Amino acid sequence: MMVGNKAAGGRPGRLATVAPGWWVVLGALAITTTLWGIGRAGMADGALWPWRGVSMLAAAWAITLLSIILLATARSRMIEPMFGGLDRAVRLHRRLGPLAVGLILVHVVFYIPPTVIQGGSVGDLLVPFWSPTALTFDTIVLYLLLAGTALAYMRHLPYEGWLSLHGLMGPVFLAAAAHSSAEGSTLLAFEPLRFWMWFLVLAGFLAWAYRVLFYRWVAPRYRYRVEAVLPRAGDTVDLVLRPRDRRMIYEPGTFVFINRPGAGSRRELHPFSISSSPAERNLRLSVRMLGDFTRGLAAARPGEPVEVFGPFGSFTPHRYATYRRLVCIGAGIGITPFLGMLRFEMTNDDFRRIWLWYVVRDADNAPYDAEIRDGVLKADSYIDYDLWITPDRGRLTAAQVMAAVAPLDDYAVMLCGRPEFVGDMVRQFLAAGLPRERLIWEDFRFN
Q1: Whole-angstrom Cα distance, residue 101 to residue 105?
Q2: pLDDT by residue (tens digit) across 39-82?
Q3: 267 and 340 share a domain?
Q4: Considering Cα of 96, then 97, then 98, then 102, what sign does the dihedral take?
Q5: Which of 22-36, 259-273, 422-436 has the lowest mean pLDDT?
Q6: What's the CATH number where 345 sits?
Q7: Residue 339 is assigned to a structural domain of this protein
Q8: 229-262 confidence digits (pLDDT tens)
């Protein structure tokens, strides 16, 4: 059953079709390729093609991508806009990682034929300590990259393990990049290319050092204290934080990292979506208790200090203000960012047409149903709300959503939930003809 409130009008808008991070990638690769091509022009090297040229260019591209990966995940408020938000930067990182390692494999594979032609040993290229002339450092780095990439993309790798692995892989990436930058014949012969590649390596190193070594001490943070811990149904708690001095300014739908310095918390910070409104003094985080850190939050005591880092992310309607009609779908704890958006709608006059689906396994796992119904009635925008209980009504599909919104076709769709749910819905909307630029999603996967 849908719940609605008073009507409001709106007009359509447009979204950017390409994420900013991809422009960064394409621009950096274009610079690398152009400088490498200029550097090779006029160099007398008959053995360059077809093997060595591909191998050398693949290595230069790999260095470029590895540096961008480290830059994208630096958790810097200054760097984040380059990638359209930290959530998008992490998604970009997940795509670039295998591509960068694949280019390193291409570099190695295309280096084998000229080595054999010149009478060298393949064992020297692929087996550490094969002989006194073996490229032991290169092969060790290669196998570390392959093993690290395989582990990083394991579906069930814990969040803390994923972060620790990336902290260790940073020096491996940088060692490989620095080693390649110091030995390539084109790099040594062409100063602009050498400067550019070392600039990339330095930028990657500084981003890694900021994120792994110094973040807790130098990153901007806000001092809060626990105001209350409110149990909810479905293994969910609301962590309500009150600022100890200045409060954080944020957009609805963004997320933060938190640290509990007084509770002996682990070294890594943990991300949580904000479910309060920017107009409220207190900061509310709605947390599903899935691991040791989240279960420990249920035992937090009033007055306990909490450090808040952020805000981060681009999953906010403010970034898409030109779209006056929004379809919002939150599955399970994926409803969290929409709670903040709804609470903000209760205090502003930004009239929009909104459809909101809250997808849950059963009524006991819908702890925010009553809050949403109350907010829908108070919001200025025209909001239709539907609690979708999957066992009773089956899986929600894009076709059902689009039929409910028809005949309008100028809306954007915001999706948040588990990766499997979000990925399936994105594929359905695309197959149904919704333009990709009108799909905005956050898949609650930070690893």
Answers
A1: 6
A2: 877 565 555 566 777 888 888 898 899 889 889 888 888 888 88
A3: no
A4: positive
A5: 259-273
A6: 3.40.50.80
A7: yes
A8: 999 887 889 999 999 999 999 999 999 999 888 7
pTM, full prediction? 0.78
Across 49-58, 133-142, 178-187, 239-248, the highest mean pLDDT is recorded for 239-248
CA angle 422, 425, 428 (to 5 degrees): 150
Mean pLDDT for the stretch of residues 162-187:
66
Q: Are residues 264 and 179 in the same domain?
A: no
Residues 299 and 262 in one domain: yes
349/289 same-domain check? no
Query: What's the pLDDT at 180?
Result: 66
| 353 against 190, higher pLDDT | 353
Q: Which of 280, 312, 344 is the last residue of a domain?
A: 312
Q: Do strands 270-273 and 255-259 pair parallel, antiparallel, or not at all (unpaired)? A: antiparallel
DSSP H or E run through 273: strand 270-273
Kindly state the DSSP code that residue 132 receives in the 8-state scheme.
Answer: T
Do 114 and 142 share a domain, yes or no? Answer: yes
CB 54 within 8 A of CB 110: yes
Query: Does residue 231 share a domain with residue 157?
Result: no
Question: The CATH number of the domain where 155 resides is what?
Answer: 1.20.120.1770
Domain count, the chain: 3
- Which CB contacts under 8 angstroms, 24+ apart, belong to 48-57? 51/110, 51/111, 51/113, 51/114, 52/110, 52/111, 52/114, 54/106, 54/110, 55/106, 55/107, 55/108, 55/109, 55/110, 55/111, 56/107, 56/184, 56/185, 56/186, 57/33
Residue that finishes a domain, picked among 186, 218, 250: 218
Q: In which domain, by residue range, is 391 found?
A: 317-442
CA atoms of 31 and 390, how far apart (whole Å)? 50
Q: How confident is the model at residue 187 (pLDDT cuts 50, 70, 90)?
A: low
Q: At what angle do helices 53-72 and 191-209 cross, to 10 degrees?
A: 30
Q: What CA–CA distance (Å, rounded) separates 285 from 300?
A: 13
Q: Is the dihedral of CA 156, 157, 163, 168 positive or negative?
A: negative
Distance, in Å, from the CA atom of 254 to the CA atom of 250, rounded to the nearest integer, reads: 7
Which residue in 366, 422, 420 sits closest to 390, CA to CA? Answer: 366
- Whether the per-residue pLDDT at 141 is higher than 90: the answer is no
Say whether both 300 and 324 belong to one domain.
no
- Residue with the larger pLDDT of the pair 268 and 293: 293
Q: Is residue 5 part of a domain?
A: no
